[in-house]
């Protein structure tokens, strides 16, 4: 038995956890995709001289956006674990800008969800990162 | 070396020792968890990336070279439990413009990693045209 999955409620009800700590918020979703956002925050800076945020928070953003996409595709909130995630950093995120991460689940099997996604900071036609990965069901 | 603000958010410190530096990330339910009681995959990935960058800084010395991540592939092998996690970067190749670095993260036993990453970095040397 499982409840239908609502990403907005999932994010707005959270008061702790790593996604909350880096400031990730819900933005939009469809049947097999989700869009989350990561507002600029000096605590995320990875290179002091430039003010550019570290790539770790972008990895976290994309892990979560693609996770949510997998739950949406499956139509329920089932426990899964990231098996692997590959990210290409096309360019640095602009200091001060919110990063938007869009994840898509393009295929699910009995055990594995295949995902992909991209991140941008204002213009979807000018992405800053691309990701591809897989999740594995951990029960059920 | 001084770690950036993001390393502070992860709670990282550098362990004294020989060779490539080992980073330690104490467990923190509020800031680092994904599902309750487990580390978030993003926090593990962030730790692996920082371990690789610290390894490169260590190898380069304080020479002003900028280290820009090109890509990262993380394999998650075990759930990260509610305990301290360590990570170390191993440099596979340090070229003029490109560095290839592997990093592993473990909890109790370095031979049983919870995750491993392969990473490519672009090196922008102080004297190179790309730094202008």
Description:
The complex is a heterodimer of chains A (140) and B (132). Chain A is an alpha+beta fold and 140 residues long. In chain A, 22% of the residues lie in helices and 39% in strands. The N and C termini of chain A lie close together (10 Å). The mean pLDDT of chain A is 92. Chain B is of the alpha+beta class. Helix content of chain B is 23%, strand content 36%. Chain B contains 3 helices and 6 strands, in the order H-E-E-H-H-E-E-E-E. Chain B has helices at residues 5-10, 29-32, 41-60, and strands at residues 13-15, 22-25, 66-76, 85-94, 98-106, 115-124. A 6-stranded antiparallel β-sheet of chain B has the order 1-2-4-5-6-3. The model of chain B has no long low-confidence stretch (mean pLDDT 93). Chain A binds chain B through residues 16-19, 21-22, 42-48, 53-57, 59-61, 63-64, 79, 81-89, 92, and chain B through 2, 4-6, 8-10, 29-35, 39-43, 45-47, 49-50, 66, 68-76, 79.
List keywords for this structure.
heterodimer, A: 140 residues, alpha+beta, six-stranded antiparallel beta sheet, two-stranded antiparallel sheet, 3 helices, 8 strands, 22% helix, B: 132 residues, 6 strands, 23% helix, elongated
**What overall geometry of chain B do the principal axes of the alpha carbons give?**
elongated
Strand content of chain A: 35-45%
What's the β-strand tally of chain A?
Answer: 8
Q: Roughly what fraction of the amino acids of chain B lie in strands?
A: 35-45%
Sequence stretches where pLDDT stays below 50 over 5 or more residues of chain B: none
Strand order of the largest sheet of chain A: 1-2-6-7-8-5
Percent range for helical residues of chain B?
10-25%
Our count of helices of chain B gives 3
Average pLDDT figure of chain A: 92
The helix fraction of chain A, in percent, is 10-25%
Largest interface, with counts of residues having CB < 8 Å to the other chain, equals: A-B, 34 and 35 residues
Secondary structure category of chain A: alpha+beta
**Shape of chain A from CA axes?**
globular
* CA-CA gap between termini of chain B: 25 Å
Distance between the termini of chain A: 10 Å
Helix/strand class of chain B = alpha+beta
The tally of beta strands of chain B, per DSSP, is: 6
Low-pLDDT residue intervals, each spanning 5 or more residues of chain A: none
Radius of gyration of chain B: 15 Å
Query: SSE order of chain A, as H and E?
Result: HHEEEEHEEEE
Radius of gyration of chain A, in Å, reads: 15 Å
């Amino acid at each position: 038995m499982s409840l239908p999955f609502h990403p907005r409620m999932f994010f707005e009800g959270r008061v702790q956890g790593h996604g909350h700590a880096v400031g990730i918020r819900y933005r939009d979703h469809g049947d097999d995709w989700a869009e989350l956002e990561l507002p600029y925050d000096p605590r995320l800076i990875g290179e002091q001289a430039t003010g550019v945020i570290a790539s770790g928070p972008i990895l976290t953003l994309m892990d979560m956006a693609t996770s949510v996409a997998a739950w949406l595709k499956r139509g329920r909130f089932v426990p899964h674990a990231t098996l692997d995630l590959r990210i290409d950093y096309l360019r640095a995120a602009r200091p001060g800008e919110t990063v938007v991460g869009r994840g898509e689940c393009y295929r699910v099997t009995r055990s594995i969800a295949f995902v992909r996604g991209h991140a941008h900071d204002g213009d979807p036609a000018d992405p800053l990162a691309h990701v591809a990965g897989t999740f594995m069901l951990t029960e059920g | 070396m001084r770690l950036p603000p993001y390393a502070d958010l992860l709670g990282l410190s550098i362990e004294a020792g020989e060779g490539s530096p080992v980073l330690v990330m104490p467990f923190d339910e509020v800031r680092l968890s994904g599902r309750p009681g487990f580390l978030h995959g993003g926090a593990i990935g962030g730790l692996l990336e920082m371990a690789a960058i610290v390894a490169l800084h260590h190898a380069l010395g304080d020479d002003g070279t900028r280290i820009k991540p090109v890509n990262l592939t993380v394999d998650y092998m075990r759930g990260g439990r509610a305990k301290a996690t360590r990570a170390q970067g191993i440099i596979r190749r340090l070229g003029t413009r490109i560095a290839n670095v592997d990093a592993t993260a473990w909890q109790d036993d370095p031979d049983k990693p919870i995750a491993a990453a392969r990473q490519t970095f672009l090196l922008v040397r102080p004297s190179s045209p790309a730094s202008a």
